[in-house]
Amino acid sequence: MNESGINRERLLATFVELLHINAPSRREGPIARHVAAMLTALGASVRYDNAGEAIGGEVGNLIARLEGGLDAPALLLCAHLDTIEPTAALALRREHGAFASDGTTILGADDRAGVAAILEVARALTERGAPHPPLELVFTVAEEVGVMGSMALDAAGLTAVMGFVPDTTGPVGTIITRAPAQKHLAVTIHGKAAHAGVSPEQGISAITVAARAIAGMRQGRIDEETTANIGVIHGGKATNIIADTVRLEGEARSRDPKKLAAQAAHMVACFEETAAEAGARAEITVSDVYPSFNLADDAPVVRAARGAAEALGVQPLTAATGGGSDANFLNARGIPTVILSTGYRQPHCPDEQQDEEELVRLAAWLYLIVRRAAAHT
Ligand SMILES: [Zn+2]
Hints:
Elements: H1 8-19, H2 29-41, E1 45-48, H3 51-55, E2 62-66, E3 75-80, E4 93-95, E5 98-100, H4 109-128, E6 135-140, H5 148-151, E7 162-168, E8 174-179, E9 181-190, H6 206-215, E10 220-223, E11 226-235, E12 245-254, H7 257-278, E13 281-290, E14 293-294, H8 300-312, E15 317-320, H9 326-332, E16 337-341, E17 344-345, E18 353-355, H10 356-375
Parallel strand pairs: 3-6, 3-7, 7-16, 8-15
Antiparallel strand pairs: 1-2, 2-6, 4-5, 5-18, 8-14, 8-16, 9-12, 9-13, 10-11, 11-12, 17-18
Helix pairs in contact: 1-4, 4-10, 6-7, 8-10
Bound molecules: zinc ion (ZN).
């Protein structure tokens, strides 16, 4: 593939190896050890941070540094090691130029495609022996359960001036430059228990309060860059008891911090006002899950991704996402970072697929990003 040193068969073989390692969130030990061994063999220095202890997982984030013989600013490549569900007993199918499972498990291309591409780039660079900027390779844990690994990332020692996270759908060439912040709401409605048949007048139903509050709440797509959802509700013990407690969880997201604050305040007000009207009480905790990011089209990291895509012959396209990822926290830690499409389709679904040619293009894209950075120093 043009001047890229990507070894197609080795890349696909690595991808298949990674797919067969079962490692759902917080149980990334086996895949982390596998990746660490490969990087160590390439001469990279490898460490784990303490995120594993912080979040109750088997291992922390795996952080490697691969020197490249060039005294240039470091580049960061990042992918997550966990999958949303177990992939034990994955029955891999390879048909029509794509990988898929048999439908009984997910495939796990999200984000083994990203991990495999980064490993192939490290191998290709090492094999070729041409000078390149230092690479900081960050493999996060527990991304799929609220980006917990990178929330707890120990970024001390990271010096990269830009970062690339291959971890989204869409044709290779797609560059995500904008993503929302998320706030989480934990709500407890305290009503008053009473016997539903004997003395219903003495009760205050927390279930009714929750229902009224939710019915009056703006949810779903609020506007082009703002969304909200009440996603969890628990409460009540029996039909003959007026429920005194309901617990709910919800979220709000926006790429605009003001809109996010306004939506969260609206949701809080719905619970508080409805509870007060009924003589109940709403206890609400609002917490920040991850911060937003918004990179200009002429930011150096965006230009680097674009330029390499053009050099590869694929059409670069910048876009926004409604999801949160490792890139949110890397940006928050001062490393301008974009998300790159890997070519996986239907992530988190039994019919998840990964196109072979797209995976090869992804690796070549990352390789060119690094090589072009070397040429520009
Ligand atoms: Zn992912």
